UniProtKB/TrEMBL annotation:
It comes from Thauera mechernichensis. This is 1-deoxy-D-xylulose 5-phosphate reductoisomerase. Its EC number is 1.1.1.267. The gene is ispC. It comes from the Bacteria. Its cofactor is Mg(2+); Mn(2+). It catalyses: 2-C-methyl-D-erythritol 4-phosphate + NADP(+) = 1-deoxy-D-xylulose 5-phosphate + NADPH + H(+). GO terms for molecular function: 1-deoxy-D-xylulose-5-phosphate reductoisomerase activity. Residues 266-382 form the DXP reductoisomerase C-terminal domain. Residues 146-234 form the 1-deoxy-D-xylulose 5-phosphate reductoisomerase C-terminal domain. Belongs to the DXR family. NCBIfam families: Dxr (TIGR00243), PRK05447.1-1 (NF003938), PRK12464.1 (NF009114). NADPH binds at residues 10-13, 37, 124, 126, 210.
Length: 395
């Protein structure tokens, strides 16, 4: 029996994880569930899975949830705040932690799980983009097991030889090919991109996801963050990572070897596949995912990404090559710009403009410890706020 903490249990990944847990009551037991604001969405999963703890973002939310659970006779202890998040991610009774909080807010609890040597199921790519070197060092020092949930990285993990993560050099890997759907604006006339709405950006053709990652997919910043994520997870430089636009989202990514072999992982676009893979690894379990029907799919298409259409992808490659604080600044500026876009304060194309200005200001800034990462993140958010104010219409 494996005990799991799900950080971000009310989100899209959190809910898919609970679905997989619910299919295997003989294998998995829930230790803790966490949410930020939507404490009401934790009531039903607490009643069903009876975790030892639930963690929410504020004392008011904790009070509401505790009262609702008490009234139904549920013994779950309700906590709140950052220290509690880190506590349930690192508790001695926890075997694995699903890191599915969105954005930099997930960094500290995810790092706590890594430092405590847990099996870390990593969906929160922003944590790795922000603090890749520190995070990977924590994993190596504690002997934690890091399993990627992001579908592309999970695919690459499946296509790499077992044990690759610990011994990258002799495996004969030539390139990592990350596939990308191209999002909802792959073919939108460039002149129309300035005026697209948050609702259009969140209408992804193949995947149902949280709003932040949906906007990232529309700008292809999601793929940019994934390039940086792949760099840290698989120890490969930017030049060994290629992005391939593949609109069907059936091939989730590939690994090319020195002998010319290319290994791909295929499946229907359903996050329960990588989630179940990582939870059961090295075994395989049922995930509730519809089998892939190749006859129905019939064809697979591939294109080169258009960097003029998707400047965010270029900015991410630039940030990875630059090193230092650039990736942390890219991530923080993007989070703020996406929030402003979702709030109708800036236009879609302003997202890349805001990030580019912040990156210009961060040139030469180093990050060698967690405090420096947190400071660079805060600094970039200030710069981004100023850029966003300059661009807000009617200000
Ligand atoms: P979501 O918006 O649906 O859910 C986010 C979760 O994080 C919620 O449970 C929310 O309560 C919690 N949260 C938000 N802000 C918080 C804060 N400040 N403190 C504590 N908790 C907070 O997001 P999602 O789509 O499930 O994505 C989660 C993560 O997984 C992201 O990093 C995303 O990039 C990654 N990811 C998602 C998908 C997908 O298909 N949804 C695929 C690959 C990777
Ligand atoms: Mg992905």
């Amino acid at each position: 029996m494996q005990r799991i903490t799900i950080l971000g249990a009310t989100g899209s990944i959190g809910q898919s994880t609970l679905d997989v847990v619910g299919r295997h009551p003989d294998r998995f037991e829930v230790f803790a569930l966490t949410a930020h604001r939507q404490d009401d969405k934790l009531v039903e999963p607490c009643l069903r899975f009876r975790p030892r703890h639930a963690v929410v973002g504020s004392p008011e939310a904790a009070q509401r949830l505790a009262a609702a659970l008490r009234a139904r006779g549920c013994p779950t202890e309700v906590l709140h705040g950052e220290a509690a998040l880190e506590g349930v991610a690192s508790a001695a009774d926890v075997d694995m932690v699903m890191a599915a909080i969105v954005g930099a807010a997930g960094l500290k609890p995810t790092l706590a799980a890594a430092r405590a040597g847990k099996k870390v199921l990593l969906a929160n790519k922003e944590a790795l983009v922000l603090s890749g070197a520190i995070f990977m060092r924590a994993v190596a020092d504690s002997g934690a097991q890091l399993l990627p949930i992001d579908s592309e990285h999970n695919a690459v993990f499946q296509a790499l030889p077992q044990g690759y993560a610990r011994e990258p050099s002799p495996a004969g890997v030539r390139r990592i090919l990350l596939t990308a759907s191209g999002g909802p604006f792959r073919e939108t006339p460039l002149a129309n991109l300035e005026a697209v709405t948050p609702e259009q950006a969140c209408a992804h053709p193949n995947w149902v996801m949280g709003r932040k990652i949906s906007v990232d997919s529309a700008s292809m910043m999601n793929k940019g963050l994934e390039v940086i994520e792949a760099h840290w997870l698989f120890g490969v430089p930017a030049d060994m990572i290629e992005v391939v636009v593949h609109r069907q989202s059936v091939i989730h990514s590939m690994v090319e070897y020195a002998d010319g072999s290319v290994l791909a992982q295929l499946g229907n676009p359903d996050m329960r596949t990588p989630i179940a893979h990582a939870m059961a690894w090295p075994e395989r379990i049922e995930a509730g995912v519809r089998p892939l029907d190749l006859f129905e799919i019939a064809r697979l298409d591939f294109e080169r990404p258009d960097f003029a259409r998707f400047p965010c992808l270029r900015l991410a490659f630039d940030a990875l090559r630059e090193g230092g604080a650039a990736a942390a600044v890219l991530n923080a500026a993007n989070e703020e710009a996406v929030a402003a876009f979702l709030d109708h304060r800036i236009g879609f194309l302003d997202i890349a403009r805001v990030i580019e200005r912040c990156l210009e200001r961060s040139a030469g800034l180093a990050v060698d410890c967690l405090e420096a990462v947190v400071a660079a993140d805060a600094c970039a958010r200030e710069w981004a706020h100023a850029e966003i104010r300059n661009r807000t219409p009617g200000r």
